[in-house]
Predict the 3D structure of the following.
Amino acid sequence: MTVSIDMPATADLVAEQKARRSIVEDRIFFGLSLGSAVFVVVMLLGVMVSLIIGAWPALSKFGVAFVWTERWSPVREIFGALTPIYGTIVTSLIAMVIGIPVSFGIAIFLTEICPPILRRPIGIAIELLAGIPSIIYGLWGFFFLAPFLQTTVQPFLINTLGNIPVIGLLFGGPAYGIGLFTAGIVLAIMVLPFITSITRDVFQTAPPLLRESAYGIGMTTWEVVRHIVIPYSRVGLIGGIMLGLGRALGETMAVTFVIGNSHNISASLLAPATTISASIANEFTEATGDIYTSSLIALGLILFVITFAVLAFAKWLLMRTNIK
Amino acid sequence: MKHLNLAIAAGFTFAALSVSAASAADISGAGSTFIYPVFAKWADTYKTNTGVGLNYQSIGSGGGIKQVEAKTVTFGATDKPLSDADLDKNGLVQFPMVMGGIVPIYNVEGIKPGELVLDGPTLSGIFLGTITKWDDPAIKALNPSVKLPSAAIVVVHRSDGSGTTFNFTDYLGKNSKDWADKVGSDTAVEWPVGIGAKGSEGVANTVKQTAGSIGYDEYAYAAQNSLSYADMKNSAGKVVAPSLDTFTSAAANADWANAKNFHVIITNQPGDNTWPIAASTWVLIHKAPDDAAATGEALKFFDWAYKNGKDQAKALDYVAIPDAVVALIEKSWSEIQASGKPVFATQ
Amino acid sequence: MASYARRQVGNRIALGLSMVATIVGLFFLAAILFTLLYKGFSAISPRIFAENTPPPGSDGGLLNAIFGSLAMTIIAIVVATPVGILAGTYLVEYSRGSRLGEIAKFINDILLSAPSIIIGLFVYTILVVPVGHFSAWAGAVALGLIALPVINRTTQDMLGLVPNALREATAALGMPKWKAMTFVIYRAARSGILTGVLLAIARVTGETAPLLFTALNNQFWSTDLGAPMANLPVVIFQFALSPYADWQRLAWGGALIITVAILALNIVARMLSNIGTSK
């Protein structure tokens, strides 16, 4: 990008030397930045490759059946990913079922009816939830939420919903305090800020003209949101939900505290379970034997594939709405 | 993982050559949470006396075995002794450090510490999930005068690889054919029911936090944290409370001299005054250590602990290894050699 | 008219629920922060900054853990910042619309939200196993790999905000590209990029999982980067799940320290970006 100017002969040489050096410097700079950008891509590939290599012994021993085998026995060296996968999916589902309506509610409140002066503080407050590290959520969940649920909400659920024929299975068993249900609630609180923030941004892309036309024909605020804004921003909304889901799937520390670490699949939502990340966090540093370690890395690989797919899908959807 | 082992070996040699002499004289160890309270006490005193610290990671026997096999620590500590084959394969020696008792701990409103009596078959039933309520007839039979609530039992067990689990499940297996058939005994088993907690610390903490729960833990954790522990009916039919006396009675039966590699399990021992769930902790060290200096420091520490740490161990209700056995152990240390000479110089 | 009344009621209910949702969200925030303050405040004393982590049953402080976290975070940021800024530079300045550029941006954003425990596993495989032991270096690398996508992303966003007129002006003056970037463009985006670095620090400060298999932990004071090093998150993890009252108190104290640090960083970052945009 150097520009050469016609100058008298003596200055020519100096200018030429300068220009040549600049070209070299520019090339170095370009190389460094290209290298850095490529490094990020290489890192992802490196992660994938190292996970596959690490998981290979387990996968070659158990085959694809690893994914649906329930048994997890370090003693007999038989491992199956079904229990952690089940826990990961169920806790994330609970988090979504609770988190999506609440996030939408907050977003609607902030965009439609919140007084303008309060908008910023409340928005920042909700975003603070995202800044709190997950180990704090774990501490809070274990020491406060779990005992509270164990003494109040869970017995209530067991005594009421637990007696209904089919749904009762979901709410049976003793009140452990920690378990799938508690972990799901903690995850819901953690994904709130993400889904809320994207939902807010997406709501704001709805053209004011559309809204005003709707108000013009007499629709109420809620009807405008429900029939105009949400359908308009549907793609972005799903993207935001997927982003929250991606977070929930990969969350480690908060879940490890409150999931109960049990390698059993139980029908009850109140039962202890385990998730992929909780299993790895709890068992990795002491896994003896190649197959055990390799099985844990295989779990990591499965988690990586699942979250990559979800996050890629989310990103693609969000790209289509031009929201960053 | 073959190439990883090669990489570990190659990397370690490279690291050993390139890294300067150990910057900290700290001894590194990892493993059993069972022995951690007394290790911590010993380490504190040892550091004040000699300036050498003990960096011990209380991550469970499974973790200790793995770390010492991977040579990421100088010694490992495990409550489950390794088999002769495993010791040979990894070039390790093992020797017992201390003995103690495992107690059932519980958190039930209205039942005071030491008020509850349990026995092997009942404990097995609880952990199998066949006994689900505190007022079950089996528990009632052992506790006729205690007011048992009709609450559900929340079982708490270890989630990590634990020697404490090994000894506990060994005891359950000896008292319940169902348990031996269905679950067996090892550092990590497929628990039929219950919540998993990490480390002896985690079990103690979870039981403390969860109403109606029962778990198992090393006695020092229960005592230190004012947890309720149960008395047990031993194999002689007598009800005993956990104490240094009953642990010593169990330990007295250990025939160390005739056990190859000091492989002795002391659960369910005979005797009127014997605590039924007793256990030992072994230290694992490499026969041909890469870092002879570090291993030497470690052995010096253990020697000090055997000779000078008895009172502290007693204060925490651990049973010290008898002097005669210590002599045998230190004789076996001559196997630990570097460049042809024993690492530990016996006085 | 009844239908209109019904719609009005429906509207009121829906909006009322949205207000309830907001209150719920704010309630949880307050509950968590209040709990943190309540439990952590009693642990904060000069002692916590002066003494190392104690053996179980004794009182002590968090000095070695605080040092470890600071050391590893600083190394991580020092390494990740130039790489992140340069990567962001390439993606904005050189590769507009190119295939590689789009893919790199996409992948960076995925890494941004990827589970950090996976990064921990990766660094374990490349930096712990070959060397044979845990180390603070491995911990710092893991943290750096987490900070990198954050800095990359914010640099992209900030550079994108710099008006093209500025770039064209540097070209008209005959500045070499690298000079234009370092003396003019970066300067213009300075507060935004700094915001990104602060946010990366905040993000990395709270990460526990990647440190579990890389730096592990250390009870004693240690400045040896080639050995396991104490750090706040793992110490909190260990102490909180223990039954010892002293340890639990220190865990809450450490948690409060981390949260205050992160909130402070967020506030400063926000103020910086406000200064930047109000120019």
